[in-house]
Amino acid sequence: MSDWITFGNGRRGRRSWDMDPRMVERWQRLLAAAHGADRRPHCDCLHEGHHLELVVRRAERLQAGRQVEAYHIARFPGQGALHHPSCPFHETDVRRSGRSGYEEGVVREMANGDLRVALRRGLRIRDRADVPPAVAPTAGAAANGAGGAPRQARMTELGLLHLLWEQARLNTWSPDIGRRRRWWTGVRQALVTAAGDITTGRNQLLGDRLAMVGYGDEDGPALLRRTARSCGDTWRILLLGVVDSITLRRGRQDTGFVSIGFDGAAGYDLRVSAHADWKQRLARRFPMAMTALGQPRGTRAIRVIGLVTATVRVGCDGDRVRIGAWADDVALMEVEPDTLVPVASAPELAVASDLVKARRAFIKPLRFDAHRDVVHPDFVLTDTADPRGTPMEVFGRDDEAYAARRQEKIRYYNDVYGQNEWWCWNAAAAPRNIPPFPPVLDRGDRPGA
Ligand SMILES: [Zn+2]
User: Fold this and answer.
1) What is the rounded distance in angstroms from the CA atom of residue 445 to the CA atom of residue 216?
2) What is the DSSP string of 126-178?
3) Which of the listed residues 73, 109, 117, 261 has the most CB atoms within 10 Å of its CB?
4) Helix-strand-coil percent breakdown of the chain, rounded to 5?
């Protein structure tokens, strides 16, 4: 399986071309021709002997300083699970990610394919958070009659960051993506496209409030200014980028505040600040990310992605437009530095790096706001013989308290996938020995390839 799309006129193109500076124009021409055409495009997946049709959707985006029409391609609502795990239109079975940790209705797929999410804190500035963050992990425990882990009634900023990453397919990797992941403009476009298909409770399009900060993105600063102006006093802005620093600073009259620095922000004239508490709060919630940010830039094993929800002020200083943002909330996510695939621990980072080196294709199912007890694999290989993908589990603890939990997972995978049909590594007992990965299915054998 691949990301090749066949259009009604017989032409073929790759969805990944949209993230390739040399190919993006050709891709957009293909989509423009297919938009509204009688015969729909399709991917290479087969379902009951038929190709799965796709839809071409139109949106606007800023490109080289101009507002241009841009097209993207989407699956039909409700068909995410019918696509092969290695197909870009495949939707990770929610039962195999932390999305299963939400109560029903927190993430809803609408008839037009948009996702509607119920956020803990709305985007309107006068909306306050429903549940204090400290209470969230256990709230709703009693409401969950089915037993097991408690479910979340609202999505936090971390859940939203995971949703954006998943919808932009930045939690997947295959060797042919190569260096495209390092092209920030392409990453920004994938995330903005994903955000354009997500609405919040008040019918607010997430894409209208999202601004991204990153290296070498010639349209980035203008987009940030435009989004900041449109937020005004009414809406919160969502700032997303690679975080470079989170430091405690001394303000006027000796009041401290936290300053959040994004990577590649030099040309943005952006200043992001938060209450002094946030340094400690983030260190408690995201220890791996904060430890990395405490190290010199060149020695960090991971990169840290940040989503900051903030009220924003646009000011002028002569000809320069300066943007000041005051954070209401900050969510961090640790990613493997070259692929931007999220990793939740050092052993997961080791596995992800080895998978990339071995030229494997895989998905990283994300936790969202789920309680730690939700069973979902740490990775899923998408290039093996199993059409569901092959789950991979990294056991990071070897103590007695964890043993029952490990046994439960082993039983689950044995039941659902069969013994020896999934992969695991006891990273606590054998920290240096990553077992060999399950074999790749020959490309010629793959259904639909
Ligand atoms: Zn497909």
Assistant:
1) 41
2) T---SS-TTTTTTTTTTT-TT-SS--BSSB-HHHHHHHHHHHTTTTEE-GGGG
3) 73
4) 30, 30, 40
| Phi, psi angle pair for 59, to nearest 5° | -150, 175
Q: What's the distance, CA 381 to chain centroid?
A: 18
As a CATH number, domain 209-335 is: 2.40.50
CA dihedral 357, 363, 368, 372 (to 10 degrees): -80
Per-residue DSSP letter, 70: E
Distance 380 CA to ligand 1 centre (A): 17
User: How remote is the CA of residue 80 from the centroid of ligand 1, in Å?
Assistant: 8
Which of 199, 235, 258 lies closest to 310, judged by CA? 235
Task: Write the DSSP symbol of residue 263.
Answer: T
The alpha carbon dihedral of 76, 20, 176, 10 has a sign of positive
Beta-bridged to residue 72, according to DSSP, are 57
The angle subtended at Cα 205 by Cα 202 and Cα 207, nearest 5°, is: 150
The whole-angstrom separation of Cα 332 and Cα 224 is 20
pTM: 0.88
* Rounded average pLDDT per 10-residue block, the chain, 449 residues: 88 89 91 93 94 91 78 90 89 80 88 88 80 44 47 92 95 91 91 92 86 92 94 95 96 87 94 96 97 96 97 91 95 97 96 97 93 81 92 90 88 91 94 95 56
What is the pLDDT at residue 1?
A: 57
Unique residue bearing structure tokens 């203008």: 222
The Cα–Cα gap between 147 and 138 comes to 13
For the record, the structure tokens of 323 come out as: 């943007």
Q: DSSP code of 438?
A: P
Q: Are 285 and 236 in contact (CB under 8 A)?
A: no
Ligand 1 centroid – CA 50 distance (Å): 11
User: Is-contact 365 354, C-beta < 8 A?
Assistant: no
Give the SS3 label for residue 434: coil
User: Rg of the chain over CA atoms, in angstroms?
Assistant: 22
Provide the 10 A C-beta neighbour count for residue 107: 18
- Confidence at residue 137, expressed as pLDDT on a 0 to 100 scale: 43
Distance 7 CA to ligand 1 centre (A): 13
Asked whether the CA dihedral 358, 367, 241, 230 is positive or negative, the reply is: positive
Give dist(CA 185, CA 191) in Å, integer: 10
- According to DSSP, residue 208 is labeled G
Q: What is the residue extent of each domain of the chain?
A: 4-82, 209-335, 346-445
Protein residues with C-beta less than 5 angstroms from the ion ligand 1: 43, 45, 83, 87, 89
